[in-house]
């Protein structure tokens, strides 16, 4: 077997800039023509007879521009919306679906740039619920014709820290709440008044409370997680809407 001493080129003569290293070098040695193939961490020498000699190289010859880049927030949102679309807000989601949605939502949360959402004007307005794992909201224990079949909205006033949940067809129920900041992204939710069929007011019971953390926010999409482990994904429909005082 030939050694590096018999070749007209050695590792030390290769260019120092990995991006400028060619993927194939042909040189003439004393015995035969050999072809040098540069792989990540390896130098392969192919002689004329077809056999291959390999050396470990302590440097990567993979150009930096070939390294895979992470997905953008727009790409992740498109993937999330496509996965959500056939699931009827989550009512038709299988355990596998829920796991996939949670994974994509986590990817989106990882690229969140709004670190203090409670101070952001992007929070203001009416949001439509497009996916949740909350069985109480989806009413999955009921027959399908008795579930809230119309759109479900949540509105927030960031300045007054007021929130309003609104069902549409067929019940038109509503509830308003005060939001008590626990951090720059997490609030305690204190429900105060329910409106049955949209106009019969009932004072909320003392147990009507919970916590909510806003984990992703932009002008189109909001992701939140509740204290009971539920995931909520909403899309903006009216940034001018204000919760009634």
TrEMBL record:
Indicate the principal place this protein occupies in or around the cell: plastid
Which GO cellular component does the record give, naming just one? plastid
Species source reads Rhynchospora pubera
Q: What is this protein called?
A: Plastid-lipid associated protein PAP / fibrillin family protein
What are the residue boundaries of the Plastid lipid-associated protein/fibrillin conserved domain, all occurrences included?
75-235
Q: What InterPro entries does this protein's entry cite? A: PAP, PAP/fibrillin_dom
Query: Does the keyword section mention Calcium?
Result: no
Source taxon at top rank: Eukaryota
């Amino acid at each position: 077997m030939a050694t590096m001493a018999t070749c007209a080129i050695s590792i030390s003569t290769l260019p120092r800039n990995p991006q400028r290293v060619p993927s194939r070098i042909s040189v003439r040695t004393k015995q035969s023509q050999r072809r040098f193939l540069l792989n990540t961490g390896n130098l392969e020498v192919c002689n004329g007879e077809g056999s291959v000699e390999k050396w470990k190289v302590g440097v990567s010859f993979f150009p930096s521009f070939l390294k895979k880049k992470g997905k953008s927030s727009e790409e992740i949102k498109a993937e999330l919306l496509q996965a959500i679309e056939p699931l009827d807000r989550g009512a038709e989601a299988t355990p596998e679906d829920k796991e996939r949605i949670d994974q994509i939502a986590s990817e989106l949360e990882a690229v969140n740039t709004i670190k203090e959402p409670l101070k952001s004007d992007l929070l203001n307005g009416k949001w439509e619920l497009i996916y949740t794992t909350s069985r109480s909201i989806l009413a999955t224990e009921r027959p399908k014709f008795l579930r809230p079949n119309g759109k479900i909205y949540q509105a927030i006033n960031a300045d007054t820290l007021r929130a309003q949940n609104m069902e549409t067809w067929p019940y038109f129920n509503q509830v308003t709440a005060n939001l008590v900041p626990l951090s720059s992204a997490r609030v305690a939710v204190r429900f105060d008044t329910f409106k049955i069929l949209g106009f019969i007011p009932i004072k909320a019971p003392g147990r009507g409370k919970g916590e909510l953390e806003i984990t992703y926010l932009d002008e189109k999409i909001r992701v939140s997680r509740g204290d009971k482990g539920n995931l909520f994904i909403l899309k903006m429909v009216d940034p001018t809407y204000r919760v009634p005082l």
